[in-house]
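Quick one: structure tokens for this chain, please?
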Amino acid sequence: MTGDEDWLIYRGAGEPHDGIDRLPPPPRWREFGGLPLVEPRLGVDGSGGRKLGEQERAITYRADSEVTEIVNAALYLRRPLLVTGKPGTGKSTLAYSIAHELKLGPVLRWPITSRSTLEQGLYRYDAVGRLQDASLRQNGTRPLLRTGSGESPAPPSIGRYIRLGMLGTALLPQARPRVLLIDEIDKSDVDLPNDLLNVFEEGEFEIPELTRLPDDQAAVEVMIADGTDRVAIQRGRVRCHAFPVVVLTSNGERDFPPAFLRRCLRVDIRTPNRQQLTDIVAAHLGPETVAASEDVIERFLEDRRVGDLANDQLLNAIYLAASGGRPPEETRARLLDALLRPLSQPGQ
């Protein structure tokens, strides 16, 4: 890359590269290093542990120039990215595209509901399980762990009962940032965006159950969210080294407080035009499919003027029309009506 594109770390073209290593140091107010680095195992299958469906979505995603520019601004500034747009426009897929292209491992996905809390995102402490184990050991039905020759048996470490959440795992001090997808943040309780402010600003959190431990238990191994690996937490404090690539998606169902918006870079993913739809079809189903699907693409564009349609509805319709089944024309017309039914219509 040369000229004006030299600054681009994320290009949005679906080709993996090591551009993340060209990222300059963060602004002084976004530096978080200091704790020893940890490197959890991210998988051993060439995809870095990604599921096949996620890998396919990432490879075929194409970001337009505006989205690409805002993503790069978020990378340089180490700030969360708030992505808005209609359902089915690829808001969540953007996170998988960034992780795939920059080779940052599998995406940490935190799906938000009205019951989601900050603590759930950071870590979970199974106090009940620990009490049950202690009771069983006292009754002699569960063996104690041996600490060494001639020493008294000891109960399992408290770390056995702590698992980091998706947000907590993303904040581990790693040389390369992880990608965290906070999906549909607009579904959250009204307090969650404000609760995230301090974590986004400071890049750290504490696990009180570990900070209260004696000096001889300064380092405790806990589980991470996306695997069976364990990492050592020092003094109950987790602080990122490289701020994670945080992608928050919203369908625009609510407004967010100014303090929350101030900490995010915002981008709206627009519905794709004809050329972009053609590129999407070619990426997923092959260039040869485009010419045979012009009528379906035209139908999709016409129906989209009436109500919202998602990109995957078009892909489903074209796949069915181009598959070996080849339903009769009358059946095909009925199936297209069903597959291209608008998600919402004016007045509904």
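The longest strand covers residues 245-250.
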